[in-house]
Every structure is written in structure tokens, then in C-alpha cells.
Amino acid sequence: MQSGDTLGQIAAQHGIDLSALLSLNGLSLESVIYPGDRINLTAPAAGPAAAPAAAPRLMTLAGSIGSAGESSSAVPDTSREESASSSTNQAILAAARAQLGAVQDCTVLGEVALRAAGIPGVGDESPESLMAYATPVSNPQPGDFIYYADGGMGFSHNAVYIGNGQAIHSGWNGNQTVIESVDVGSGPVYYRVNA
Q1: Which three-class secondary structure state does DSSP give residue 160?
Q2: Sign of CA dihedral 61, 63, 69, 70
């Protein structure tokens, strides 16, 4: 693993559902992983009556994975979030949540979320080119992308909508991935990923 990797990326790279990976390791979406942590990629064998199974696959993390920032918005308040409307939106939302606290720019947030949703052809993107995977919508749902012609710092920006006027943004507060208002910069334009 490399600096900046997240649980969402680990799950996507190994073909494991993020919620299963979290469950296997006793983690939650708010968990922070550190270099040297061991991540189970498969369930351990059941009790003595179970047939012999291969040893659980483990991954030891190397390098800096990213940690939650001091901003209170780095920890999600899921009590007010709406439900994602499709399995694609659910996968995008879960991948975005798994990146909270990671130090990265907004395009990495979008690329990882698209890959986790099984969208092919995602490479080294700009905020504008990420929107090529989606269609503009006027009724935003959690898991939709948000595009900003100016994210408030003089250049374009993208984020993932979580509902109730909130979004997951990367590149905030020292490049942290955090939850902030959708109302930044030039204002949000919502896009739904084409599944």
C-alpha cells in the first residue's frame, strides 16, 4: 500500500465489499488505519467443526495511510444523511466515506469512488473530466458527484454529496478529506454517475 491509501481503496483493489472489510476487522467508517496495522482480507476459519481452511489473508500496511484531521467535520454525522438511491450511488458514497481523513486532492476522492462503484476507464482525471462519467441532475441524491467551476480557491473542484446540504470534499484543511457544506465557491452542480 502507498501513502494516502484508504480502506475503500483496499477493499476495491482486493474485490471485497467495503462493509465486509470493515466487519472483518472490527472497524467502522470513522476508523483510522496506520502504518503497521494488519488488515484481514478474508474471514478466519470457523470453530473446530469447520473444515480446514486456508490461513486468513492479512495485509500489513506500509507508509502513511492518512489520519483524521483536527477538524470536527472529518468525522461524519450519519444521523442526518439521506439514503443513496442506487447501488452505484451507495458504492460511491461508501467509498467516499471510507476516505474521510485521507490527505489527497479532490480528483483522488472521485477516482477512488468511481473505481469502487465498478466504473471502468478511470485514470488520472481532472474535476471536469470526472464529470464525463455522469449526467447532470436537478434532484441530487446521496452518492451523486458535485462539480464546482471554482471551488473557492480559483480552480475547479469536485465532491460527493451525502445529503442535507453536506458533501465529502478532499483538498480541504491541509488537503484533508472532510465533510463540509455543498455551498462553496461557485456553487454546486450535481451529476449522477452513469451505471
Answers
A1: strand
A2: positive
